[in-house]
Amino acid sequence: MTMAVNTHYDSLRQQLQAGADALALGLSDVQVGLLMDFLALLQKWNKVYNLTAVRDPQEMMTHHLLDSLAAVAPLRRHVAGLQQGGVAAVKLLDVGSGGGLPGVVFAICCPEVDVSCVDTVGKKAAFIQQAAVALKLRNLHGVHARVETLTTPFDLISCRAFASLPDFVTWSRSALAAPHGVWLAMKGKHPEDEIAALPADVAVFHVEQLTVPGLDAERCIVWMKPV
Fold first, then answer.
1. E strands within the chain?
2. Which of 92, 107, 156, 178 is placed for a possible disulfide with 140 were both Cys, Cβ 3.0 to 4.6 Å?
């Protein structure tokens, strides 16, 4: 039994490593190990807490981990720009984070970014707190709240499969740091209708196509800012 489990773990880790290499993320062995530990935590807690509808570890790898990893390079690029612009400690809010996707992945891959994952479901926020302790991630925090009630200024606000773009920016507006704050929304196909429905005071400044290793599906990031 243990042999089979180890073989399965090894093949998943190899897939993760290959995906990270394909994305040119330069992850350390420690970071790859943390991502694998996070996958194990997600599987374990999912049985009790129903954090994600995806149950199969292989599917979790492609549809959750690698999908989230595809946004890491664009995030790092933006963070580097903020730091050059004088923002010393970059704070990111991941909205409707659920099982911590992409928030926990961002926290592991970008240790210089302080990541808060907010969810209205208490057990999901508790899972993030548990993950932060188990993985010893000081830059990761679970927040149990409605995003509309948050007023702490964040430099970046992200979401993945959370809500329509108009709802996302409207609900999280009070938490966005002025004047440099931006929204990073991970989407599937180019969401033309949602972009057209954005409030007049929100501008899309970039739609970035993503390639997810091992996943044949359209993905993009919609970058937005207040105007």
1. 91-95, 114-119, 140-144, 156-160, 182-187, 202-210, 219-226
2. 107
Taking the CA atoms of 135, 138, 144 and 148 in sequence, report the sign of the dihedral they define.
negative
In the sheet that holds 182-187, the strands lie side by side as: 140-144, 114-119, 91-95, 156-160, 182-187, 219-226, 202-210
Task: Give residue 115's identity as a one-letter amino acid code.
Answer: V
Chain segment 59-89, per-residue pLDDT in tens: 788 888 999 999 999 999 999 999 999 998 9
* DSSP state for residue 175 in the 8-state scheme: G
Q: Please state, as a whole number, how many other Cβ atoms lie within 10 Å of the Cβ of residue 120.
A: 13
Distance of CA 69 to the CA centre of its chain: 8
Q: What angle do CA 74, 78, 79 make, to 5 degrees?
A: 115
Confidence of residue 161 (pLDDT cuts 50, 70, 90): confident
pLDDT tens figures, 17-34: 999 999 999 999 999 999
User: Which amino acid is located at 87 in the chain?
Assistant: V
Give the residue from 176, 116, 161 showing the smallest Cα distance to 143. Answer: 116
pTM for the complete prediction?
0.95
CA distance 128 to 142: 5
